[in-house]
Amino acid sequence: MQTSIDIEALNQQIYIDSAFMEALNQETSKVIVGQKHMIDRLMLGLLAEGHVLLEGLPGLAKTLAIKTLANAINADFSRIQFTPDLLPSDIIGTMIYNPGKNEFSVRKGPIFANFILADEINRAPAKVQAALLEAMQEKQVTIGKETHKLEEPFLVLATQNPIEQEGTYPLPEAQVDRFMLKVNITYPEREEEKMIIRRNLSGETTQKINPVIQPQTIIKARHSVKKVYMDEKIENYILDIVFASRNPEKFKLSELKPLISYGASPRASINLAIAAKAHAFMQRRGYVIPDDVRNVAKDIMRHRIGLSYEAEAENVTQEEIITKIINTIAVP
Q1: Domain 4-220 has what CATH class?
Q2: In the prediction, which pLDDT does 1 show?
């Protein structure tokens, strides 16, 4: 077990290692007004080595936020607009025949970058989404017989419009589970929208974003995130939350049983633990507290809980189920 002296030393080390967060937040706020939750979750995904799925209506600065963050980190950025006629080779690349050398050579696709913006991912056919799976899970791509490692840091930031919109298709559960976070983007507040109008009219939105850190800083920060201390009580708290989504009746939540068709997968437990550590790091703290877990729980679990027909008929959402679980499970 770590002693209190170890925790204190670790806390000081994490405070030093996370100093770059302030500069990064200041730089992104030059262009992005409001949407703090979205920026925080993009940073969380980056630090926790997890991909992020952003869901929201068009025009809510999803693309702008991702591009701004990539520029501030001085990382390679690639945007792929998903359409129904997209092919896997349009993403990962293909083999090109060279008549001069009488051989095939690899032409790499846009997936070979640090930040991949998969715009409107739920408009693409299944083949394309399957091609993205290997890159997301294994951080490598196979073209022909050759396997190519992707550069670190590698992060897929996918956006999707709500499923109800015409011409969109729900992602398969196996792929959705690969995203660490699913973040719902909402409209800005009234005062924030007034600021957005003013900035657009004055041309401030074209401000140049300066790189304040390098990709290497993020890789180093990821090692620091893994060192953040997590007590066994917090581990048990995470397991209680996840297991309550599978067997709610064992946690005095019998009323949720008919609303859930399937509970959160083991990836939810793993990602809750990693994300809680990353959240503590972003708060410049060297240890995890229950608030870190509660803060990230909805974004980690909302896409990992299946709703029953009964829940859909009663208009019950995953958020309501997760809120009920969090409010019932005893906090350590």
Answers
A1: alpha beta
A2: 44
